[in-house]
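Technical note accompanying the year-one report. For the benefit of new consortium partners, we illustrate the data format agreed upon in the data management plan: each record pairs a sequence with a structure-token string. No post-processing was applied to the example shown here.
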Amino acid sequence: MSETGKTKAKDGQALTLGDLRAEIDRIDAEIHERLIERGEIIGELINVKGTQDSGAAFRPAREAEMMRRLVQRHRGILPLDTVESIWRVIISTFTYVQASYSVHADMSGGDAAVRDSARFHFGFTVPLIAHTGAGAVIASVAASRGDLGLVPAKSVATSTPWWTALENEKSPKIIARVPFVERSNHPASFPLFVVSRPVEAAVTEVETWSVRVAGWAPLAARAVSALAEALVVPDAIDGAALLLSLPPGRKLPEVTDALQKAGSTVRATALVGGHANRYTV
């Protein structure tokens, strides 16, 4: 092999089809060996950190940084979709080896789209449990030792602001958003928040806030949309429950000030998690 990773011709002669297939077999065996070696290191990590007992193997900040580096170093003819999926499955599966968990998913936004996203990001080793409604997902996560939940990160037909169940300090929180690496024609593009019991090494480049307001009107909606991504569930009177995702550098008082100037009254606010800022390619 040359320093650039390309196969050399032997004695000035072009490599045969058999030579190239032998190289592929050699690389396949090396990849497998490296995965086995990674597993052995994870075994040592379990011994050092005791993650099998703690149920806390998730490191959202580390995972986001790993995916950023993956995209930055990728080159060649292999599609980024394939590379991202392989690495997501490796990360998720080895996390499962450290501390077994299940993924609970709200399928009300579309069964096929949510399943595609769940399998793309977590593979087939991690158990996937389907639910109808985000509330059931959050309740299952809250009752577990270390399970994850997938709930819609875009507006879906619902009369219940599921995120209010995250407001208590000890309640599950939003820890990630998928897909993290965004691009046109992403094969698992349905946007989902990842919900977990509070974890170490959480990342809050994007803060997520539950905000309840009175006096919700089109002017207030326009004021919010200029500052943050929002999920909105109007109430039976004139108010609304909002889930706000504040981009890096944006602070909640900027949004609440804008709401008040638009004629809304802010009744309550609660930080319900955060996630890494999406990486666009």
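Partners are asked to follow this layout when depositing records. The mean pLDDT is 90.
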